[in-house]
């Protein structure tokens, strides 16, 4: 998804808003770095689509607040799988 940074910022903003996606998920979807996604939506988007930016920012803030919960669930799942494997053998 290389090309025009301003176009990319709008596409990323719309994707994040539509899918309630994290920066990491958007980066993976479009094959670009998390740094690029973050720069596009936090620096470029407010300048080129000021009406879209607050909506995207709201999603990103919510994701940031929930980050510790997702991390805890991932860790719980990891150890549950390890425990299942231990009892299999």
Automatic annotation (TrEMBL):
One of its GO terms (molecular function) is DNA binding. Signal peptide: none annotated. It comes from the Bacteria. Keywords: DNA-binding, Transcription, Transcription regulation. The keyword DNA-binding applies. It holds the Pfam family SpoIIID. This is Sporulation transcriptional regulator SpoIIID. It comes from Ruminococcus champanellensis (strain DSM 18848 / JCM 17042 / KCTC 15320 / 18P13). The lineage of its organism: Bacteria, Bacillati, Bacillota, Clostridia, Eubacteriales.
